[in-house]
Amino acid sequence: MDMIIYNNSIFERDSINIDLEDRGYQFGDGVYEVIRVYNGKLFTAEEHLKRFIKSANEIKINVPYQVGEMQEKINELIHTTSLSTGIVYLQLTRGVSKRNHAFPSPPCEPVYIAYTKELALPIVPMKSGVTTITVEDIRWLRCDIKSLNLLPNILAKQEAVDSNSFEAIQHRGTIVTEGSSSNVWMIKNQVLYTHPANHYILNGITRQVLLSICKKTGFVVEEKPFTIEDMVKADEVFLTGTTTEVMPVIQINKQRIGNGDPGTLTRQLQQLFTSEIEKQCGNLSKSFD
Ligand code: PDD
């Protein structure tokens, strides 16, 4: 029996109907989050839930639940669905109302859903690295909001899939922004570079965790824009994201990065990131040796 969260209570999936005039369905008028689960425990839950509320507030939706009560219910769902390794998907829409672009007046109740999904471990490409392509970033100018409107991201990812690549690295003109569902980093002469957290990218939680790991362990990071040319000439390139974790990039547009193998520092960062997961969620039976 599939169990899900609907408006912060747990129901059987089949007992819930989503209205065809839900504004999420009609307009993509809502926000979402993806939180990782390891050993049945949420990783960086609070950070994701706070960003969920922030995204909602940015599009003027008030989340009718506190971080603590959402987290409690999600933990209950993880327990109910016996999820060990996987993700929780959360979504909040402005609610159900007769189709009209402007906000409903009086406002309608937001619709909140969450469900769990299993994800297999270990992810093989994390050891061997992935190939990527570059695509023009055609998204709007509020990429800091984790909005349901993902058409440009979907088109970019499909382009990657069509060219047998894992991810599409987006750029505005010559400047690299981020992947279709990940943040992008490059390393040159032992210095890490990643796009600053502004309206052009989503400030990834994985990105933030890695920044704090770098600070603690003495890796030098510059949150500074870099060009496609800088990136393809870099010593190492990698992606970060909730499902991607720390993923080495070995090729961009069929051009090898470094010697074509995952970089040494990237592998060190993978190990440090794994230790961080283990601190929160317990021992993971995977290694990057
Ligand atoms: N994507 N940039 C974009 C555009 C993203 O969609 C994501 C995450 C990230 C990485 O953010 P985080 O580290 O918080 O996961 C960056 C999720 C996983 C998704 O859409 O499935």
From TrEMBL:
Q: Which domain of life is it from?
A: Bacteria
Cofactor requirements of the protein: pyridoxal 5'-phosphate
Q: InterPro entries from the entry? A: Aminotrans_IV (IPR001544), Aminotransferase-like (IPR036038), BCAT-like_C (IPR043132), BCAT-like_N (IPR043131), Class-IV_PLP-Dep_Aminotrnsfr (IPR050571), D_amino_transT (IPR005784)
Could you tell me which PANTHER family the record lists for this protein?
AMINO-ACID AMINOTRANSFERASE (PTHR42743), D-ALANINE AMINOTRANSFERASE (PTHR42743:SF10)
Catalyzed chemical reaction(s): D-alanine + 2-oxoglutarate = D-glutamate + pyruvate
- A biological process term (GO) from this entry: D-amino acid metabolic process
What is this protein identified as? D-alanine aminotransferase
Q: How does it assemble?
A: Homodimer.
Species name: Bacillus weihaiensis
Q: Which GO terms describe its cellular component?
A: cytosol
Which EC numbers does the record give?
A: 2.6.1.21
Q: Which UniProt keywords apply?
A: Aminotransferase, Pyridoxal phosphate, Transferase
Q: Which family does it belong to?
A: Belongs to the class-IV pyridoxal-phosphate-dependent aminotransferase family.
GO MF entry, a single one:
D-alanine-2-oxoglutarate aminotransferase activity
- Keyword set includes Transferase: yes
